[in-house]
């Protein structure tokens, strides 16, 4: 994605609102990716951001998988509106699972709500034309909901997901370890899950959980060689919006 530098005058009206906290480290990682994706020559060339990181937003997993428990949608709407009230001129939510409620969040949103799924699909299409196989690493709820698989299928991609054993012994424990700030341990579990998808024929492994790339900050090169990072894709999409590209 080619991103050109905008003027300082334009940027003050291009505030990005980050609806975060799901999880906290993933939110901080997303903020970092926005900064790194910006073609700045000094502080004033960077994009203004307002951020809410509320880890107490109700759980996303149970409502999706079991259809019970408190829906996080009302709390997500409150955080969205907080950002708009603080001056956000677009919204981004660096949590793939929470995009289960994207349509409701975007429907009555008075500013653009940039989709992480759109960002991922756009970058996948740039790098790998369909038909092709794409792997998917995500939470149990994201994979259970099927919204990513459906979108990939609609775009002409065959989606590969980890088998039950890999989910139970590698992916889900690794996500939990990221939330405990045990990143080295998480990385050691994510790697074989990713390698398994690649061995099964996936051209790339989509990291459809924003906690996953946070575990690879000591070996970004390996991750970038084998994976499509949804956090970075969303950040680049937000920067392109802010710079009018």
Characterization of this structure:
Helix content is 51%, strand content 13%. It has 13 helices and eight strands. The protein has helices spanning 8-11, 24-37, 61-65, 73-85, 102-107, 116-127, 140-145, 147-154, 164-179, 183-199, 211-214, 220-226, 230-242; strands spanning 16-20, 49-53, 90-92, 113-114, 132-137, 157-160, 204-207, 227-229. Strand 3, helix 5 and strand 4 form a beta-alpha-beta unit. Helix 6 (116-127) crosses helix 13 (230-242) and helix 9 packs antiparallel against helix 10. It is globular, with a radius of gyration of 17 Å.
Describe the secondary-structure layout.
Elements: H1 8-11, E1 16-20, H2 24-37, E2 49-53, H3 61-65, H4 73-85, E3 90-92, H5 102-107, E4 113-114, H6 116-127, E5 132-137, H7 140-145, H8 147-154, E6 157-160, H9 164-179, H10 183-199, E7 204-207, H11 211-214, H12 220-226, E8 227-229, H13 230-242
Parallel strand pairs: 1-2, 1-3, 3-4, 5-6, 5-7, 7-8
Oligomeric status of the shown chains? single chain
Low-confidence segments, ≥5 residues, pLDDT <50?
A: none
Number of domains: 2
> What is the correct CATH architecture of the largest domain?
3-Layer(aba) Sandwich
What spatial form do the alpha-carbon principal axes imply? globular
Helix content: 40-55%
Which structural category fits the helices and strands? alpha/beta
β-strand number: 8
Beta-strand share of residues: 5-15%
Separation of termini?
Answer: 10 Å
One letter per element, helices H and strands E, the order comes to HEHEHHEHEHEHHEHHEHHEH
Instruction: Name the CATH class of the largest domain.
Output: Alpha Beta
Biggest sheet architecture: 4 strands, parallel
Strand order of the main beta sheet, please?
A: 2-1-3-4
Per DSSP, the total helix count is 13
CATH topology of the largest domain: Rossmann fold
Radius of gyration: 17 Å
Let me know the average pLDDT. 95
């Amino acid at each position: 994605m080619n991103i050109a530098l905008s003027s300082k005058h334009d940027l003050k009206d291009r505030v990005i609102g980050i609806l975060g906290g799901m999880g906290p480290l993933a939110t901080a990682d997303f903020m970092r990716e926005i900064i790194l994706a910006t073609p700045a020559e000094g502080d004033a060339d960077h994009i203004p951001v307002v951020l809410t990181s509320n880890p107490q937003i109700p759980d996303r997993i149970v409502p999706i998988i079991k259809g019970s428990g408190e829906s996080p949608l009302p709390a997500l709407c409150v955080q969205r509106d907080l950002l708009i009230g603080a001056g956000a001129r677009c919204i981004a939510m660096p949590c793939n699972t929470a995009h289960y409620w994207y349509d409701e969040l975007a429907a009555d949103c008075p500013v653009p709500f940039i989709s992480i799924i759109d960002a991922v699909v756009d970058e996948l299409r740039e790098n790998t034309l369909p038909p092709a196989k794409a792997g998917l690493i995500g939470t149990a709820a994201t994979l259970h909901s099927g919204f990513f698989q459906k979108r990939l299928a609609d775009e002409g991609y065959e989606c590969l997901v980890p088998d039950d054993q890999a989910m139970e012994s590698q992916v889900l424990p690794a996500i939990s370890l990221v939330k405990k700030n045990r990143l080295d341990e998480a990385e050691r579990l994510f790697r074989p899950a990713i390698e398994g998808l690649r061995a099964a024929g996936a051209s790339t492994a989509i990291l459809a959980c924003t906690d996953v790339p946070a575990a690879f900050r000591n070996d970004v090169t390996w991750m970038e060689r084998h994976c499509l990072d949804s956090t970075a894709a969303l950040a680049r999409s937000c920067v392109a919006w802010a710079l009018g590209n």
